[in-house]
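Propose amino acids for all 200 sites.
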């Protein structure tokens, strides 16, 4: 089975491309969704995060919902705290992905979708790294419409992420999602090339 790591900055359309691959029957592990699920349901993870951040991290009603504003205050402007939180969450997500991937061995491909594939070290779990790219202005437009946000807030989010050009440079392949170049031929070529290289 060929494992592909799919990444890209906000507004590039990473999840849209992942959806296109799912339509082809390729299983996709959404690391962002799984991380949120695990931080709400995994008792060991919840205990470790509560010890780090404080007793108000989770809703007092016992529903298991993390209070995002509490976490945001803890990590905002504090790289050391961010690193500590990631040091708890990332290993658990990595373990969860490995268990998930072990159940997909009958498939030709599987996808690890992660906005922080390169930053988190998750790229070490995949055979090939693919970055979805799009022009900056198009990315901004997409986010403004999708999130009912302002240009300024979108730019702040973009600037807080790893540089998009660097993501592309560190990836094995780039898919251009610019509303001009068709995606399907790019995906076809990507899958063919990955399979060819994997079987060498």
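Proposal:
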């Amino acid at each position: 089975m060929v494992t592909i790591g799919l990444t890209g900055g906000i507004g590039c359309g990473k999840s849209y491309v992942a959806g296109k691959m799912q339509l082809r029957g390729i299983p996709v592990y959404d690391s962002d969704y799984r991380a949120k699920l695990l931080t709400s349901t995994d008792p060991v993870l919840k205990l470790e995060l509560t010890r780090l951040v404080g007793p108000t991290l989770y809703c007092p009603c016992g529903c298991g919902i993390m209070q995002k504003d509490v976490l945001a205050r803890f990590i905002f402007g504090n790289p050391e705290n961010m690193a500590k939180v990631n040091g708890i969450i990332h290993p658990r997500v990595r373990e969860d992905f490995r268990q998930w991937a072990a159940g997909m061995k009958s498939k030709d491909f599987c996808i690890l979708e992660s906005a922080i594939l390169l930053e988190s070290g998750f790229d070490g779990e995949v055979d090939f790294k693919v970055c979805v790219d799009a022009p900056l202005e198009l990315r901004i437009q997409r986010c403004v419409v999708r999130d009912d946000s302002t240009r300024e807030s979108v730019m702040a989010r973009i600037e807080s992420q790893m540089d998009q050009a660097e993501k592309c440079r560190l990836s094995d392949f780039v898919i251009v999602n610019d509303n001009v170049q068709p995606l399907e031929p790019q995906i076809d070529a990507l899958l063919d090339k990955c399979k060819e290289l994997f079987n060498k």
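The CA atoms of residues 5 and 112 lie 5 Å apart. The first strand starts at residue 2 and ends at 7.
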